[in-house]
Amino acid sequence: MQTWELVFARKMKRLKKIWWVIPAVLMWWGCERDYLFRGGDEGITFSSDTVMFDTIFTSIGSATRNFRIYNPYGSDMTIDAIRLAGGDDSKFRINVNGVPSHEVYEVPMRAGDSLYVFVEVTINPGESSDPSFVVTDSIVFSTKERNQSVKLVAYGQDVVLMRNQTIESMTFTAEKPYLIYDWLKVDTAAVLTIEEGAHLYFYQGAGLAVYSEASLKVKGTKENPVLFAGSRLEDWYLDKPGQWEGIILAPGSKNHDISYASIRNATIGLNVDSVGLDGDAPLLLSNVKIEHISKQGLVAQASSIIAHNSLFADAGSASVALTYGGHYEFYHCTIANFFNWGKYRSIPALLLSNYYFNKDNKPEIRDMEEALFSNCIIWGSNTNELGLDFEPKVKERNDKEEKNEFLLNYRFENSLLRTSLSEEQLSDKKYFNNVIVNHNPSFVDYQKYNYQLDTLSIAIDAGSMEAARKYPLDYLGNSRINANTLPDLGYIERVELH
């Protein structure tokens, strides 16, 4: 064999050995992952930032929830530690990748992959004298660059659980909170009395309906208001709208009196239909707050309402909508709307209307006997927060248009308005008297839902003493009657600290 042929043969033998080694190396790299990466500045991500145990426990019991953690990187990684902040004393337990412990170390995750974390809680209601106690903790995730956490919240105790019930006359007390699933219905001619300090929590889709001839009596006080709210107690849910359906006062229900109540997080806060007319007593709203609502805060049709010292704010539609006529009196109320839950609000904070469209798409008109706003503030983030939507004063009879006058009485006096009405319209003393137009009322901090007046607010000392004498104390119990000054506008009087 020639020399060059021997050299070529030897090289081929070497290459065969190398070709055998290369697949072996590749297989080794494919089977063995080093997981040396410990995470970047962004950290890891979670399917939820809070694990909520929203079942109310009435005896010793446990429940399990889960969530997922994600590796958002293009590299395999290791989580240094996953641990309960409460350690061995925590009421919660975790299970990560089949390992039950209050702390787990060196948890591997493949690139772009995820894994489940299971959480269990055991609550003993007898350990707390507070009927609405909350058990909290957090799971801490440690990587090289960051410490992150997922909150754990479980609440319960010995509550009154009500599910799709129709009740006769009954009194709710502050002794235990009430958790309501589906609808709670007050039967015909019954009276639901709710004492001061009572808390009613409504699950998703739940609500309170008061039927014909039935009455709702809410007897909250300044020190112990009554709460109507969603059933989620984490801080993030405090101002989240649409968590439950709301309160309905059905046609024919009567003699309603709601004092010092906070109604929040509903789809429609308070829906009043054909209440208080034809000789019945009006619905009385005294020191009421209706906030964080996905649609209307207060919507009424063909009803009679007297409201004072009340706040209607933060609604996805109108904070107050008074439709299809009726009789309404609002004294020292703040109607504000800075709703910012992701959609533009086209409806003004206050809407007045005297009609609705029937099934034949024709307007049904009713007298607006009175809509009085005295010493009030109507303001919000839109350039127009006052909607006046009235149909012409005619009815159709036998296909012929016959003149038929309807009452159309509305009046704003000693109030602050944000409106796009013309100067000519605003100069009509029949409807507007001593109003302040398009001057910011200077709330202390509307972004934190604080609608008290700042020191330099134009609404200070701008009210009518005549209206203030009817309701001489504001929402906080401060006097509006002062010999040296006039009352302020809105539901809270400005009190300077000396």
Please report the total strand number as a whole number: 42
- Largest sheet descriptor: 26 strands, parallel
Distance between the termini: 114 Å
Spans where pLDDT lies below 50 across 5 or more residues: 15-31, 394-400
- Percent helix, as a range, is under 10%
Radius of gyration: 32 Å
What number of domains? 2
Per DSSP, the total helix count is 3
Strand content: 35-45%
- For the residues shown, what is the average pLDDT? 87
Q: Which overall shape is indicated by the principal axes computed on the Cα atoms?
A: elongated
Task: Return the structural class.
Answer: mainly beta
Characterise this structure.
This protein is mainly beta. It has two domains: 45-155, Immunoglobulins (Immunoglobulin-like); 160-470. The longest helix is centred in the N-terminal third of the chain and has 29 residues, at 3-31. Mean pLDDT is 87; it is low at 15-31 and 394-400.
Outline of this structure?
The chain has 498 residues and is mainly β. It is built from 3 helices and 42 strands.
List its traits.
3 helices, Immunoglobulin-like, 498 residues, 43% strand, elongated, 8% helix, 2 domains, single chain, mainly beta
Topology:
Elements: H1 3-31, E1 45-46, E2 50-53, E3 61-70, E4 77-84, E5 92-96, E6 99-101, E7 103-109, E8 114-123, E9 134-142, E10 147-155, E11 160-167, E12 170-172, E13 178-186, E14 191-195, E15 199-202, E16 207-210, E17 215-219, E18 226-230, E19 246-249, E20 257-259, E21 261-264, E22 270-273, E23 283-286, E24 289-291, E25 298-308, E26 311-313, E27 320-331, E28 334-337, E29 350-353, E30 355-357, E31 363-365, E32 368-374, E33 377-380, E34 386-389, E35 394-397, E36 400-403, E37 408-413, E38 416-417, H2 423-426, E39 432-433, E40 436-437, E41 443-445, E42 450-453, H3 465-470
Parallel strand pairs: 2-10, 11-13, 12-14, 13-15, 13-16, 14-17, 15-18, 16-19, 17-20, 18-21, 19-22, 20-23, 21-24, 22-25, 23-25, 24-26, 25-27, 26-28, 27-29, 27-32, 28-33, 29-34, 32-37, 33-38, 37-39, 38-40
Antiparallel strand pairs: 1-3, 3-8, 4-7, 4-9, 5-6, 5-8, 9-10, 30-31, 35-36, 41-42
